[in-house]
């Protein structure tokens, strides 16, 4: 039978990143492709105890729960948000099945086909996929290493009347950059001036490498009118729990909860109760410091090896946190073509092109440094450099 | 600030059932309102062991997982489906965050605004909410206690060209009825003749009270072309895990997986791995038999008390399984009005009207018999009968 699907299936495609992951999980490939935390750092014992307590705490914890999330967890989240300068009561918080669901539910209640969303370029691939599935027109704003450029931002706001500006201002995926305080303030100022909602996606904010102060979240400068802020425990506890949250104006959060009720009733509440016990009993902030130190060390190992590559025009930004190097190769190198050879040689990365909203730069790549030990980073980078050099040689000759 | 929302927020409303639940969870009300399984029957020890094994089985189980679901779980599901006569390989199965998400993801890939879905009347409230949120026109087909009536079904298919027929043919919510074999066959025949997809929602199929054979699922008569079949572990293990699944034509399942990837990446995989261990180690079918026996006994207690109500024109169908009595009161009784008095008197139910697609019958109510002990059913029914008699008296005088 020939099925009649919705128009929106045109915009659904399997993520390039995840399709690559499927391939490289097989065999002997060292992967810098995924955005995976290192599972050796998972606090397994604490997670084990937290789940045991949650399941043993009474049968009510195993029953259907409230769509908004387990109230004790929302209280913990309100407290943790306040520590970041985001002072909101727990009824401005919705627990979601990972922060991916926060992007989806927000899109569901906000966007009609043809609405405009402004983003950085490149930006988070899976957010682009959600926006496109709601038939939104995504438009890139010119940016540099400090964030969006004011002139282009204002021009695009006034000309295109966007409904939302989506940003990952701290240790972005894929770019790895950090917006300056000034640019954060400027963005919020524009949002207020022209009445546009900012969606601040912050999955990596806790993964900071140096003692230097990272500028505060944009949401911390807002009086809970213009900024939605989302984050996740996937990078700091474990991804398999699928627990994220979103904080913002109550009217928006309430509509998102109603959309969530239709979507999946509520987030897995065994995991939510377990997280409450984990936050009560476990030194999560100490654990986060261990993650920071480990990833910082790995970043430096990869940086050292990148610095040894003897190719002109290879540039990158040294990440101050997060999980990724964003590498610009010489213009004549197409990283999508390079990937096939690389996988044959036992190393994987993500070509940069799919992360672009428009004008993809084919010579870019994203390298993850969190999911391999320093030894494997060494070996993988040796393989990668060999592939690049060989490609250089073949291209020149 | 005044926010601009999507058109679809018009169709989002908090479920009446869940709003009532919030009220009755407070205080001393005996609730026949919810669709909750009895938490005293939860296999807590087995769940505890299963989660402990899952978390201890290696850090990979706590990492990001595949959108389609944990492969061992899909193998188990394929096996369990085959036992119901639904023979499908595991790549025709998608694990979802409860069967609610299966309805949502299916709707997302199938429906454009203005598409038609045919349903029974009354039908599952939260499915109606999903369909409406996709701006679908839901149209009721005339039905009796055995299922949809052939003449009206064919007329509505040929006139309205629906994209889908949504049914809960076994121990339906709210009606509690079971479609006959003949009507199941007839529905599939119509679907084949006119190329319409059937969505068979079967959350209660396992909760059968007598030894008499229940007609097989409609999906078991299909060659995996016309029927999507969804079910859940919420009624047989625990709801808090939020694990459901959907089985159907690969092309549809694949698109739903892509929609799921954008929606929440994947279902909580700690719960999925735990379920694999539970299905390996625990006698789930024996446990389901205990649930059946307990609920059967409670149903009989409630039936006995309903039979004692001295009101003419009170009718109901004796449930052969599932969780609900669907009661028709005398025409002059409006159950929505009755509810306020009932809650004041310490008993709650769900008025029937919201379950109707059209022509709501205001004198209907749904009574859940699974979430209260026989003693509480006795006490609650005494309160309810008192409220009804009082209302009768007031209405007549």
Automatic annotation (TrEMBL), chains A, B:
Q: Which domain of life is it from?
A: Bacteria
Record GO terms (molecular function): pyridoxal phosphate binding; transaminase activity
Q: Name one GO biological process term.
A: alpha-amino acid metabolic process
Which keywords, in A-to-Z order, does the entry hold? Answer: Aminotransferase, Pyridoxal phosphate, Transferase
Sequence ranges assigned to domain Aminotransferase class I/classII large in this UniProt record: 36-383
Cofactor needs? pyridoxal 5'-phosphate
The record's annotation in Pfam families points to: Aminotran_1_2 (PF00155)
> Could you say which protein family the record assigns here?
Belongs to the class-I pyridoxal-phosphate-dependent aminotransferase family.
Instruction: Provide the assembly information.
Output: Homodimer.
Q: What is this protein called?
A: PLP-dependent aminotransferase family protein
What organism does the record attribute this protein to? Aquibacillus salsiterrae
């Amino acid at each position: 039978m020939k099925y009649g699907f919705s128009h929106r299936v045109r915009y659904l495609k399997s993520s390039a990143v995840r399709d690559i992951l499927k391939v490289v999980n097989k065999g002997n490939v060292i992967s810098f492709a995924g955005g995976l935390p290192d599972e050796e750092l998972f606090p397994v014992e604490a997670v084990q105890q937290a789940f045991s307590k949650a399941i043993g705490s009474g049968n009510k914890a195993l029953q259907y729960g409230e769509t908004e999330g387990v109230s004790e967890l929302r209280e913990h989240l309100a407290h943790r948000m306040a520590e970041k300068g985001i002072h909101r009561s727990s009824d401005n918080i919705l627990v979601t099945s990972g922060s991916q669901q926060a992007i989806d539910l927000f899109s569901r209640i906000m966007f009609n086909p043809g609405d405009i969303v402004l983003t950085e370029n490149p930006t988070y691939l899976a957010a682009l996929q959600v926006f496109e599935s709601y038939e939104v027109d995504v438009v890139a704003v010119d940016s540099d290493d400090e964030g969006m450029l004011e002139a282009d931002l204002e021009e695009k706001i006034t000309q295109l009347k966007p409904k939302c500006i989506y940003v990952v201002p701290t240790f972005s995926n894929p770019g790895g950059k950090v917006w300056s305080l000034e640019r954060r303030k400027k963005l919020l100022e524009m949002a207020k001036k022209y009445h546009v909602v900012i969606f601040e996606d912050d999955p990596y904010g806790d993964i900071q490498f140096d003692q230097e102060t990272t500028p505060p979240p944009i949401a911390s400068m807002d009086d809970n009118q213009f900024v939605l802020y989302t984050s996740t425990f996937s990078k700091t506890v474990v991804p398999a729990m699928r627990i994220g949250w979103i904080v913002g104006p109550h009217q928006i959060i309430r509509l998102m909860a109603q959309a969530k009720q239709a979507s999946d009733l509520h987030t897995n509440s065994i995991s939510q109760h377990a997280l409450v016990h984990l936050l009560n009993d476990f030194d999560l902030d100490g654990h986060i410091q261990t993650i920071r130190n480990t990833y910082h060390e790995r970043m430096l190992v990869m940086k050292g090896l990148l610095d040894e590559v003897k190719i002109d025009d290879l540039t990158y930004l040294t990440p101050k946190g997060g999980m990724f190097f964003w590498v610009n190769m010489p213009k004549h190198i197409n990283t999508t073509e390079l990937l096939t050879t690389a996988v044959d040689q036992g190393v994987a990365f993500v070509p940069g092109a799919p992360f672009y909203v428009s004008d993809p730069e084919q010579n870019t790549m994203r390298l993850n440094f969190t999911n391999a030990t320093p030894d494997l980073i060494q070996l993988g980078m040796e393989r990668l450099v060999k592939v690049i050099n060989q490609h250089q040689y073949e291209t020149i000759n």
